[in-house]
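Weekly modeling sync, notes
Attendees: S.R. (lead), two postdocs, one rotation student

Agenda item 3: backlog of single-chain predictions. S.R. asked that every request posted to the team notebook include the full sequence so nobody has to chase files. The rotation student volunteered to paste the first one in as an example of the format we agreed on. Action items at the bottom.

Example entry:
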Amino acid sequence: MAHHRSSPPPPGSDSRETILPRVLAYHKVTGFELGGTWVPPARFERQIDALLDAGFRFIDETAFLDALDGRRESSAREILLTFDDGYRVLLDRAIPALESRRIRALFFLVSAFAGRANTWELNLPGRRFMHLGWDEIRDLAGRGFAFGSHARTHRDLTRLAPDDLRVELEGSKGEIESRLGAPVRSLSYPFGRSNDRVRREAERAGYRA
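Predicted structure, as returned to the notebook:
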């Protein structure tokens, strides 16, 4: 069964309930832009170093999924680092910073926009950021980074007709898998929006988390 979120145990429940790792999500690591999904590179590096200094440990997607599925014990001081959208600007500072610290992040790709500028963000000056191309994605996969789906065209999945929803979920998963030759196990919902119908379709499409 696919896992979607964790909740605190209800009062009176078994206190030995599994503690799941945390997920830390970023989008762009870059200089100022008019949107609200960016972090300056120096601040990003300070945040990561502060977590390391505080005793947090960064894990990869496989370790995260193993914890969700109960195949290993986990800790709330473990973190899966993720990036929504798969922007090319991450190559400049974010990825070198991660590699120097031996951190392997999970990138959620909008598969139809690989190698293209986005057209789904607000139409403001300076908002047309390029997404990673497939050659760049394959190179990063070879360096130990993992890739999941952020749907095919970054539409609000809760508003889609059944056939369109399947295209967004199955189409993205299939395209990334065919390009990388590796399974796509995780999904990040565009805009963070989901409902029971979307979650059922995601599980039916084969996503594990």
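Discussion: group reviewed the output briefly. The longest helix spans residues 162-180.
Action items: rotation student to repeat for the remaining queue; S.R. to check formatting next week.
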